[in-house]
Amino acid sequence: MPIRALRPVLFAGAAVLLACASSAQAGDVARQRAEIDAGLDRGYAHLDALYKDIHQHPELGFQETETAAKLAKEMRALGFQVTEHVGKTGIVAIYKNGPGPTVMVRTELDALPMEEKTGLPYASHAVTTWNGRPSPVAHSCGHDIHMAAWVGAAQALVAMKSQWRGTLMFIGQPSEETVGGAKAMIADGLFTRFPKPDIGFAQHVSNLAAGSVAYMPGVESSNSNELNITFHGRGSHGSRPQESIDPVMEAARFVVDVQSVISREKDPAAFGVITVGAIQSGSAGNIIPDTAVLHGTIRTYDNAVRDKMLAGIPRTAKAVADMAGAPAPDVDLAEGGKAVVNDAAITARTAPVFKAAFGDHAIAMTAPNSASEDYSEFIIAGVPSLFFALGGYDPKVIAEARAKGQPLPTNHSPYFAPLPEPTIRTGVEAMTLAVLNVVGS
Ligand SMILES: [Zn+2]
Ligand SMILES: [Zn+2]
Fold this sequence. Notes:
Blueprint: E1 7-11, E2 14-18, H1 26-56, H2 65-77, E3 81-86, E4 90-97, E5 102-108, E6 127-130, E7 133-136, H3 143-159, E8 166-173, H4 181-187, E9 199-209, E10 213-215, E11 218-219, E12 223-232, E13 236-237, H5 247-257, H6 259-265, E14 272-280, E15 287-288, E16 291-300, H7 303-324, E17 330-332, E18 341-342, H8 344-358, E19 362-364, H9 376-380, E20 385-393, H10 395-404, H11 420-436
Parallel strand pairs: 5-8, 5-9, 9-20, 10-19
Antiparallel strand pairs: 1-2, 3-4, 4-8, 6-7, 10-20, 11-18, 12-16, 12-17, 13-15, 14-16
Bound molecules: zinc ion (2 copies).
The site of one zinc ion has 4 residues, from loops.
């Protein structure tokens, strides 16, 4: 994506120029940060209680009714106009403060179907129903941190409303983990029933050091797709292959041949992975089975590379079946998250603000995250955005783990345990400063 130093953002018939990096005044940022901090000193206990309440009462995607209701209550108390049940369980909170750009700030609402093993005093012991069975549920991706910081940023922006003009559009998105919530909100009129945002922001906690933020222009996270293929054959006695169509042979050929989509069809310099992680077929050595089922995952950064892989995989599967004289295989490459592509101009405008606020703890990322995120749906729908990472781990814990050569728990680990206060505070500061930097004055 080309860097655009001056990019017009239209709102209400007027135009705001996104200024170049030099417009960020370090003194202004320091003063704003001090004001946000003073508000946090008075209000942090409330955010802490909200965080721990949400942490102990996690809900899975499209079931986040209690979570959404808690956030709706917070935002109404701040003077936002709140609409609930947008995209099933999502919420939209609007705060109008004169003419100016509309800025979207997104948090996710959902947790994961897994057991928390952190041993923290506020650990989740919740159990819910997942795919028809009882399942533990926990905020092991840290979306509860995002919710607390989202409310905290709204509080700070309302408290500082004399310093900016525009419209805040704070959204609580359901079901990020199943990669369905952003699409559900858009399909339910997120950008037609409500103002279309000029700019969007979101943040995600990680196991970087607490107090740090990390950002990069362009591709920030990966595309993901599932791979589910069933090869059909004709079962027979193991000694009579001439009467069979062998699906194990089809599967074996496919697993090898599909890697030529990676090695021959995409640019070798472009990131792309096809992994077949599970093969299920047959029951005994002397029986040729009649089906073989493969499960895998596909990861890319670039949408064009992804499209090549999504075209090459079914073509390879069909060719393999044709070679065996077998019926066409069933191929399901269910969509996961599309790559988040950060807007170059917004990143360039926000980076000096983060540098001014956080110094060496503002980190320019040099490589995208290999995880996936459906925030990309909002960007694809036309909201230029910055999606940045938020550190959540005690630097001492990081140093100890490094010294022992042990990996830190990542998001989705049952041991993932961001430190609440420094993380939420930094999340509030970073998001509030990012928004103040793009609204009108
Ligand atoms: Zn996650
Ligand atoms: Zn997440």
